[in-house]
Write a structure and sequence with these properties.
The complex is a heterodimer of chains A (268) and B (306). Chain A is an alpha/beta fold and 268 residues long. Chain A is 37% helix and 25% strand. In chain A, the strands form two sheets. Chain A has a six-stranded mixed sheet with strand order 6-7-8-3-9-10, with helices on both faces. Chain B has one domain: ABC transporter involved in vitamin B12 uptake, BtuC, CATH 1.10.3470. Chain B has a two-stranded antiparallel sheet. The chains are: A alpha/beta (268), B mainly alpha (306). Chains A and B meet through helix 2, strand 6, helix 3 and helix 6 of A and helix 6 and helix 7 of B. The structure holds adenosine-5'-diphosphate and magnesium ion (MG). Adenosine-5'-diphosphate binds next to strand 2 and helix 1 of chain A.
Chain lengths: 268, 306
């Protein structure tokens, strides 16, 4: 049975702007599923619909259902979703900048309610095992960390809520290749060592498909393509529009590809 | 400048700064959590004092019991205000919400007048009404030793107020709930995303602000009596808050003391014109400090990374 199921989800912002037009997807336990698509396709909105964070954006699910662990979560407030072990890591590496690194981590555990000091210590140690660098910076004000360190901290903070499922939004954006490699190594570790399922939104499709088990491609509020990662890596559409390579092997941005052409291919 | 009396006025000024700091704290608590400047803080002060007065003088309950009841009722009032007046405004422009607190201040002031009537009341003494403390300092000015005469009320109000600020500050700094509140104050959406219940946190902020206001109201009423104008005293805390930097709890102490001190110093002047300018002094100091440090003395510098 799948751990997370979206059934024909429609989302409207501000009562008028329809952004998702019937999104369905599934995530099996302990897998990484990539959600790909160009800017504005509705990837972040999909994550918000799952985590309940549409509320802070004046967005609403107007149709469809979301099931997590066999129960409907599409009407739950975000805090209850987090308590069930599903957490969204917002795009843009958002930190509580004026809190120290360790305070950022500790506050990530608050949603779990009362936890003993021993549990807290153990969970911190676990995060520091994933990210040894953070331990050296425990007392640092987090706003002054580098981009890579910030990305580690937001992942570490999510881990402090003891999640079974993470919605991860564009973790590689604006990071140097070496750091990106480190983040993606951690994504694999979280799946393989801790059994956490991950729905991963990425602009860098190549990278995402290299760790993912399965992938969905979104365009204009719909899923237009899906399949196992191996299958999609070899798919011409993906290559052309998301990996930025056409048959001739020239680099090409998906922006250059005429919109009607994209649509036709996917619908046809 | 009357140098002989200067130390006396400076000290009384500083002591008067204690309650100002406490009033400033009430404003900071709400600003920190929700970026709202609460114009109704003065009315919370007034209502807290009125409730205490009503239970102790009208109903004849012991003073400490009355204060305890007032603290509980004001905590509830804070929760109710958040729930009924502010939560429905979530997502509205900040200016509308701030104007809402202005409206709220008028509603609360009017209700207080309606229920309690507008006459001046004697407020019970909280602190022992002994002789003023007399401190003979080792300093001498033109052959006369410098002596400080400090009313007990003033000293004890100061101590209680500053302790109040310290306790709340420690709560924010050292408890998990305080940590959650500091996090929420930085980024509401991010706080929600990690599972914090931000509306509950706003509710707690309003509750704390109302409790702090009641303590301040009682301290002020016991030293200068109780009437409807108590709500206006909070004006002195506005510059203290800005001085301290809207979100800093230690800043409220510094802001409060500075404002108190400035008023005290002006009173020591021999020039009648300056002596009478005590009421505008807080704002003069405020302008000066803000010209030099726009974020206030303890304000958070926005951390900007590219
Ligand atoms: N809070 C919002 N209010 C109105 N429109 C929004 C809001 N957030 C996103 N949108 C719109 O929804 C569409 C999808 O956005 P998003 O889900 O962020 O896409 P992606 O993450 O794939 O880049 C975009 O056209 C965007 O302008
Ligand atoms: Mg996005």
């Amino acid at each position: 049975m799948s751990q997370l199921t979206l059934n024909n989800i429609e989302v409207i912002y501000c009562d008028v702007i329809q952004v998702l037009r019937g999104v369905s997807l599934e995530v099996q336990p302990g897998t990484v599923v990539a959600l790909l698509g160009s800017n504005g396709a509705g990837k972040t909105t999909t994550l918000r619909a799952i985590s309940g964070l549409l509320v802070s954006q004046d967005g609403k699910i107007t149709r469809g259902t979301i099931e997590y662990g066999g129960e409907r979560i599409d009407r739950l407030p975000p805090d209850e979703v987090v308590q069930r072990g599903l957490i969204q890591i917002l795009e843009g590496r958002r930190l509580f900048q004026h809190l120290t690194v360790e305070e950022n981590l500790v506050v990530g555990s608050v949603a779990r309610g009362r936890t003993s000091d021993a549990t807290l210590k153990r969970d911190l140690a676990e995060v520091y095992r994933y990210f040894p660098r953070l331990e050296d910076m425990r007392k640092r004000v987090s706003g002054y960390l580098s981009g890579g360190e910030q990305q580690m901290l937001v992942i570490g903070r999510a881990l402090m809520s003891n999640p079974r499922f993470i919605l991860l939004d564009e973790p590689s954006l604006g990071l140097a290749p070496l750091l990106v490699a480190e983040i993606f190594r951690v994504i694999q570790q979280m799946r393989d060592q801790s059994g956490i399922s991950i729905l991963l939104v990425e602009q860098n499709a190549n990278l995402a498909l290299s760790v993912a088990d399965y992938a969905y491609v979104m365009d204009n509020g719909r899923i237009v393509l899906d399949g196992s990662a191996e299958r999609l890596v070899n798919n011409e559409d993906i290559k052309e529009f998301y990996l930025g390579l056409n048959q001739l092997g020239e680099r090409k941005s998906y922006r250059d590809v005429k919109h009607y052409k994209r649509r036709k291919r996917w619908l046809g | 400048m009357n140098w002989q009396l200067l130390p006396q006025f400076a000290t009384t000024g500083l002591l008067a700064g204690g309650p100002i700091a406490l009033m400033a704290l009430g404003l900071v608590l709400i600003f920190k959590s929700s970026y709202i400047f609460n114009f109704a803080q003065g009315q919370l002060l007034l209502i807290g004092a009125l409730i205490t007065w009503w239970f102790s003088v009208e109903l004849g309950l012991p003073l400490w019991v009355s204060i305890a009841i007032a603290l509980i009722l004001s905590a509830l009032l804070g929760l109710v205000i958040e729930r009924l007046a502010l939560r429905p405004m979530t997502g509205q422009p900040l200016l509308s919400i701030i104007l809402m607190t202005l409206g709220l201040s008028q509603v609360l002031q009017g209700s207080a007048l309606l229920f309690f009537g507008g006459n001046q009341r004697n407020f019970p003494q909280i602190f022992p009404a002994g002789d003023p403390y007399k401190i003979i300092t080792p300093f001498v000015y033109e052959g006369n030793p410098i002596v400080l005469i400090l009313k007990q009320n003033l000293v004890w109000s100061f101590i209680v107020a500053i302790l109040g600020v310290i306790v709340i500050g420690a709560f924010f700094k050292f408890t998990k709930a305080g940590l959650a509140m500091r996090a929420t104050s930085e980024d509401h959406e991010l706080a929600q995303s990690i599972g914090l219940r931000i509306h509950r946190i706003f509710g707690i902020s309003w509750m704390l602000a109302a409790v702090v206001a009641t303590i301040g109201g009682v301290l002020l009423a016991t030293s200068s009596g109780l009437d409807m104008s108590l709500s206006i005293v909070v004006l002195a805390a506005f510059p203290a808050v800005l001085l301290g930097g809207l979100e800093s709890i230690p800043g409220t102490i510094i802001g409060g003391l500075l404002i108190g001190l400035s008023v005290g110093l002006v009173s020591a002047s021999t020039n009648q014109f300056i002596r009478n300018s005590g009421e505008i002094m807080p704002y003069v100091v405020l302008l000066l400090v803000l010209m030099i440090r726009p974020e206030g003395l303890f304000g958070q510098k926005r951390i900007e990374r590219i």
